[in-house]
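Problem: given the chain below (152 residues), write out its structure.
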Amino acid sequence: MTYQSYLETPIGYLRILSNGEGITEIKFQDTDGPEDPDVHTESARTQLREYFEGTRNEFDLVLQQSGTNFENQVWNELVTIPFGSTTTYGTIAGKLGDKNFSQAVGSANGKNPIAVVIPCHRVIGSNNNLVGYAGGLHRKEWLLKHEGALLL
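Solution.
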C-alpha cells in the first residue's frame, strides 16, 4: 500500500509517499492531490514544514529509498553534507573511490527519490555553479539561500 501526503512550500508542493514502513519518495510538483496519510508521511510533513519555517536543520525519518548499490552509496554521502554547506560532484566521487565518477555521481544525484531530506540540492559544480537539480534550478537556488549556503 502507498500512503500519500502533500505540503505546500514557498517553492511548490511536495508529494510525500510512504510504503507503510518508511518514506519512499518526496518530490516537488506544481499541485497537490488526494491524501491518504500514514504516520511516516505525517511525520515527514511536520519536519519539512519546520525546515521551511527555519526551525529545523536535520531530519529524523525512516527512509526506504530504492536504488542501485552505487546510487545508495551516493545518497548516503549526501546526508552527511551539513546544513548550510555545499560540496561538489567530484568531492563525492573521490569519497567513493575515484574522482572520475563525477558524472555517475551526478546521475545518481538526479535520481534521488527523497528531495530536501536527502539533500542533493547541496551538490554544486566544480566551478561553484548551480547545475543539475531534478526539482529545477530555481528551487535549488532557493533551498541553498534558505540554508544560508548561497549568497547571490
